[in-house]
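[09:14] KT: can someone run the structure on this one? pasting the chain below
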Amino acid sequence: MAFGELFEEFIELVKLEDNEEKAKKMEQFFAKLNSTKIDRFNWADEVFEGIHVKRNPNNLALRWVDLDTGEEKKWTYEEFAKWGNRLVSYLRDHGIEKGGYVHVMMPLLPEVWVTHYAFVKGGFVGVPTANILKERDLEYRFKVCKPDAVIADEESAKIVDNALKEEPKVKLVIGDRSGWESMDDIDGSSNCEGANTMADDPIFCFFTSGTTGLPKGVLHTATSYPVGHLITACIINCKPGDVHNNLSAPGWAKFAWSSFFAPFIVGATVLGIHFSRFNAERYLEAVDGYGVNTFCAPPTAWRMFMLVDLKKFEFDSLRDVVSAGEPLNPEIFERWKEHTGTEIRDFYGQTESTAMIGNPPWFKGGRIIPGSFGRPTFMYDITLVDDDGREITEPGEVGHIVVRLSRWRPIGLFVRYLGREREDAFVGDYYYTGDKAYFDEKGYWWFVGRADDVIKTSDYRVGPFEVESALLEHPAVAEAAVVGSPDPIRWQIVKAFVVLKPGYEPSRELALDLFRHCKRILAKFKIPRIIEFVDSLPKTISGKIRRVELRALEEERKKRGERGEHEYFYNEFPELKSE
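[09:31] RB: done, structure tokens below
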């Protein structure tokens, strides 16, 4: 049996009514998938073209709209595949071979989708990069994954040129820039064969922050994302012909999850909504006006949607809504349901995986417990272990979320890290996610927080090391410790505790200078939003900073509404807004 037939079977299953019969059939399907050996697979060849282009070439694959200008573009499945094939052919004609690193950096333009398609079809290793990153971020990525090709918009191309130490074989720009070829001029063949990708051949490398050191490259294969996201499509509940929208910026794994693989696996239409500045009301107008059936957004966005008058929208087409990235507040679930009649289904996964825990579509209509992020999905053998590595069996006991590998290795799990290994990721027969949770008597799981010092802010992961290193480059800073400070909209914001060198005193002027220093060299989401000058930092006997102690102190102070004597907030500096 051709492996593509498994996708055909899944597409038929996802059409079923969202009830217990569907749950049982999905469980059986994933039990079969989990034991299936895959030798070689090219998703673009066998699924996108082999199923969707072959059977429904004129169905709409991508509809892209610009909220700022009103511009709109469309591609059918056949048109999109031809566009992708032209890009693959062009890259091959210019010396980019299977396994070559292709870096992509741009805002939410249609070209983001076609580059992802080219990664899969051509067997290139795509390195998506958020366009909010800075030169130093790129320098590190280029060092870990030496670029054979770079594709960028005009603004990002400037940053790329400054970061490059050596010219790649190909530089493609959306627009026009000296030394770059225009994406409009690619002249490759619209018919080309897909790469002969083995199951473990890499096709994506996403960079994600850790507790120590610079970001890690998370390597995914020709199967881990293309096949692994069958479970994500199951959770989101995209059906053939649906209009699906995912509020996510390109450059991060979540875009590949929900803006690319989940909808394209089933033959849905992806609605891409571009904007220069997020406006919750205008975004919901687009979701309503374009007849979105399935909608995915992070909790940060859901919290902003709560500030909008929801009664002005009809949402006649909306059937399934999901949230991922950080815990969703129960009050948001209740208010959204009250005004729209749909239930936000929270789910959980990582850059390193696909959907691991969640509220599946058959939980709608009374089985969702607001605040819980559901139950383990059928692709993963999820359990909890205590600090000594013993499995937890008692409800209510907090433990480390791990993937048990002794029974089967989930297809959706990444293969390894690049650049910087996380030595505590694989221990014995477990993959440690770095997150903590507990389950209750009914088997529902409840998120507790990170087991390490990684900060979750507005759906981004920020490692303290990067921010602390930037602060230490300032001549006034002797020591710095960075933690997450509780925030009602963004879950956490980045806070820096700073010890000054002799001769420097805490002041508004120095805080402003530090904010400006960080703004120059750090990506926007990594910039500290609070700086507090302190005399010393808590440390272990061996001299390691106890961020856990600072985090607990910060949480307690926020509960009491207290402010430090030398604590400064980014949003209280009008000078920063005007720069």
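[09:33] KT: thanks! The longest strand covers residues 477-487.
[09:34] RB: yep, looked fine to me
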